[in-house]
Amino acid sequence: MLDLGVVFGRSGSVVLDIGIGVGDTLLTMAAQQTELDVIGVDVHTPGIAHTLAGIEEQELTNVRLVHGDALPFLDRLPAQSLAGIRIFFPDPWPKARHHHRRLVRDDVVARLVELLRPDGWLHVATDNDDYAEQMQLVCDAHPMLSGGPIPRPPERPLTRYEQKGVEAGHTVVDFWYKRAP
What we know:
The structure is a single chain. By secondary structure, the chain is an alpha/beta fold. The chain has one domain (11-179): Vaccinia Virus protein VP39 (Rossmann fold, 3-Layer(aba) Sandwich), CATH 3.40.50.150. Helix content is 35%, strand content 27%. The chain is built from 7 helices and 7 strands; from the N terminus they run αβαβαβαβαβαβαβ.
């Protein structure tokens, strides 16, 4: 198990950001919320490289990156160790035969909830109507979560992916869930 205090060199609130893309949202939020330590995870090598450059340029000390699949990485995190988890615009896998590949599904959400400390939060966003429905069904069904759709929080920057979706006429939905104490 990772000792997050050792990873960041301090004992603080840690947020897991799954699927950081090119990292612009992670970098902006990390710079604005310096009291939070952020672990960003993504498989996209150019995105990791771009984010590393941004960390250096902005001299951020509260960000660590994992280059790889988030699901195996979850097993390295201690139970109830995270203040929050962010999943912004995960791949919607729009074909019905691929829905089992979606990140926000029963088994993954159950694992994420185990990692949240009491009163920890899960913030997800999508511009895919079908996926938004699934996200809400899965999260609403978990007995340790309460919450639902919220207006886009002002601290969440508009992502490149989100902007493309808005320009294409997609409706963006943010969900905020809190783990029971």
